[in-house]
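Retry 2 of 3 after timeout on previous attempt. Resubmitting structure tokens to design endpoint.
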């Protein structure tokens, strides 16, 4: 989001070549969308001269959205998405872009075969998703983003961008149920990914673990036994603390529902068998003597579960 100050030079390079000139021409002849013609009062050439403010106004955003919708040039598309994404970091522009019909324009770009365009579209949607009203329009992309995250190259920029978007979309409970069928895949990604991927998947799983309605789905997920390595004392704190917090959240949700973990029917090989098994109990008890105070407190809070 700190890239908003770079909007000026990014937008300045938006209109390039003959194909861009055609887009400029088409700006004054745009199709109707939602009963409203996109017909900016100022010339689209404003996007090329760097004379506008770093934070674009509604008129400039309108031109930028039409440019993004009209062009097939990957360079222009990518720069337009970066500019929109930077501007979507501001709450006022999050609403304006939605009202201009910009969310589906950006959302359609996640279908691109160009990985860089796909990443920039996910980043823009991520910033737009901070607005709760925007989430109602972005949620139609959740299934596709989940599929792409699990199918994309491990630790890729697209995968991380998708995980960040899913994390934002699951801060509230409204969209969490849409991830039910992907939970096992997310745990698989958690174990395979590098440090950055592990942290991002754990942030997402933490959101789910706070919702009692998601507890059974989490505990029933088939998870490899290597998951327990996340509770090793030498694990990086940013991973270890999140793994412990997820366990703590699940315990809290079980208490809210008045259920005991050992009374729930789960298949062997599930997260339940790992979290409430003897090996995990030994690891958590050992963490109660960890040198880091935060880790120690989390472990002590979990110990009564065994």
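Retry 2 succeeded. Sequence:
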């Amino acid at each position: 989001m700190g890239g908003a100050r770079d909007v000026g030079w990014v937008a300045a390079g938006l209109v390039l070549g003959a194909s861009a000139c055609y887009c400029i021409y088409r700006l004054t002849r745009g199709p109707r969308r939602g009963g409203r013609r996109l017909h900016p009062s100022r010339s689209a050439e404003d996007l090329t001269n760097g004379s506008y403010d770093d934070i674009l106004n509604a008129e400039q955003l309108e031109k930028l959205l039409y440019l993004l919708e009209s062009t097939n040039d990957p360079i222009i598309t990518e720069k337009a998405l970066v500019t929109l994404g930077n501007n979507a970091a501001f709450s006022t522009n999050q609403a304006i872009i939605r009202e201009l019909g910009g969310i589906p324009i950006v959302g359609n770009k996640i279908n691109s075969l160009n990985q860089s365009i796909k990443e920039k579209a996910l980043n823009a949607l991520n910033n737009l998703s901070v607005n709760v009203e925007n989430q109602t329009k972005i949620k139609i992309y959740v299934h596709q983003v989940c599929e792409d995250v699990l199918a994309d190259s491990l630790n890729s920029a697209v995968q991380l961008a998708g995980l960040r978007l899913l994390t934002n979309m699951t801060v509230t409970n409204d969209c969490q149920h849409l991830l039910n069928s992907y939970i096992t895949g997310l745990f698989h990604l958690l174990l395979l990914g590098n440090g950055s991927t592990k942290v991002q998947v754990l942030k997402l799983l933490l959101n789910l673990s706070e919702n009692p309605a998601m507890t059974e789905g989490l505990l029933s997920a088939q998870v490899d036994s290597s998951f327990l390595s996340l509770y090793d004392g030498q694990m990086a704190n940013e991973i270890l603390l999140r793994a412990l917090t997820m366990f703590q959240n699940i315990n809290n949700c079980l208490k809210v529902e008045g259920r005991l973990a050992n009374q729930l029917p789960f298949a062997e090989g599930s997260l339940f068998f790992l979290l409430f098994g003897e090996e995990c109990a030994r690891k958590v008890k050992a963490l109660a003597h960890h040198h880091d105070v935060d880790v120690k407190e989390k472990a002590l809070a979990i110990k009564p579960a065994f």
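Attempt log closed. The first strand starts at residue 32 and ends at 33.
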